[in-house]
Amino acid sequence: MSHKALKLVKKRTAVYSKYKDKDHPAVKKANKTAAAELRKAKRTFERKLAENIKLDKKSFYAYSRVKSKTKAQIGTLLTSDGSQIEDDESAVECFNQYFASVFTRDNLLPVSAVPMTTKKNGINLY
């Protein structure tokens, strides 16, 4: 929200508090100007998001995720034998078994010494 939009929203609230009637001409005018400025601020924000998408993808996708009507959820999981997993603890254990089977441990043994090389006329000599 821009500073101008924030000021107009506060003014709209103050005008409504004064007249307590949504059909009063001053309240209608304050609502109209505040709504127009809010639309303008939203358009400006979305335009800046689109212009900066190459530099700041995270903000763009966060905004689009909030605006999306559907939320990403994990569906039912099937174990390797085909049975469905119902509770969270079993799902965690299933993921743990899968990732443990996919990833390998790093070899922590020291690397053997590499022989020194020298270059002569662009050719490596050992």
Structure description:
- This protein has 126 residues and is mainly α.
- Helix content is 56%, strand content 8%.
- It has 2 domains: 65 residues, no CATH class; 32 residues, no CATH class.
- The protein has a two-stranded antiparallel ribbon.
- β3 and β4 form a beta hairpin.
- α1 runs antiparallel to α2.
Indicate how many domains the architecture comprises. 2
Helix-and-strand structural type: mainly alpha
**Rg (CA only):** 31 Å
* Average pLDDT score: 85
N-to-C terminal Cα separation, in Å?
67 Å
Helix run count: 4
Assign a percent range to the helix content. 55-70%
Poorly predicted regions are: none
Summarize the biggest pleated sheet: 2 strands, antiparallel
Share in β-strands: 5-15%
Provide a compact summary of the structure.
The protein is mostly helical and 126 residues long. The chain has helices at 3-19, 25-51, 57-67, 88-102; strands spanning 77-78, 84-85, 118-120, 123-125. 56% of the residues lie in helices and 8% in strands.
List the main descriptive attributes of the protein structure presented here.
4 helices, two-stranded antiparallel ribbon, 2 domains, mainly alpha, 126 residues, elongated
